[in-house]
Amino acid sequence: MARLQYTTLEALAASMSVAGSPTPDDVSTLNDGTKIDSREAALKWLREVATLRSNEQN
Amino acid sequence: MDSGPKLSLAKLVEVLEIYGVQYLVVGGVAARAHGASRVTEDFDCVVQRSDQNLDRVASALRAMNARLRVEGMTDEEAKQLPVVIDTHMLKSARLTTWQTDFGPLDVLAGLESQKVPFKDFEFLETNASTIQGDGFLLRTAALTDIIEAKEFANRPKDQEALPELRRLRDAT
Fold first, then answer.
1. B 103-122: CB under 8 A from A
2. What is the pLDDT of residues B17-73, one digit of tens each?
């Protein structure tokens, strides 16, 4: 078992305070590879999931 | 992109633990835990994909007021999306990117690499590292698996991070 060089989670998080923010290429990706890289793509995905959910409940 | 709340690692881990989520830390936090200095701030985790565990993930996300992180949308705009966080949604994606009240969180189905096309939780767990701090344990993917995933992704930020990660791997 490795010993963390930062002794607490707070210390580890603090060490990352200078880390870069998530980049624009960090986007949700569907199983078929579709990238959810816009509001329109997100809404389309959410509609598809809602249909799946509805079909299963019926 | 509006970055939203900054990472609060202890709270994120606490919520995942409360809900009993089976996960492995990968990405920036794992790289940092392995000693790397070049990381991004988001908390990436590979989760076990059973319905039961995805239900736990969904509960944890709801408890953290998770909203989708979408390019071109501010955090406030993303909060207005008609998102229902459940197993249906999580099963439909190999990667979901979230902003939570405790910082950015990415939920992955697995890691891709050249050698093994898709490494899921069960695969990664066989080589996972347990990293101990005071009063907590972090289960992270092995440094080798993180390196292979970055080699496969090969984005500019991955290319920047790889030399250091390889040095850390070779030093152990």
1. 104, 106, 109
2. 999 999 999 988 888 888 888 666 678 999 999 999 999 999 999 999 999 999 889
Domain assignment of residue B2, yes or no: no
Contacts for B171 with CB less than 8 Å, ≥ 6 apart: none
* ipTM of predicted assembly, 2 dp: 0.89
CA–CA dist B121, A27 (Å, integer): 20
**Cβ–Cβ of A4/B33 closer than 8 Å?**
yes
Q: Is residue B3 part of a domain?
A: no
* Domain membership flag for residue B88: yes
Q: How many domains does chain B have?
A: 1
pLDDT tens digits, residue range A2-29? 555 666 777 777 776 655 566 667 899 9
Domain that holds residue B107: 9-171
Which chain B residue has its CA at the smallest distance from A30's CA?
A: B93
**DSSP string over A4-17:** PSSSSHHHHHHHTT
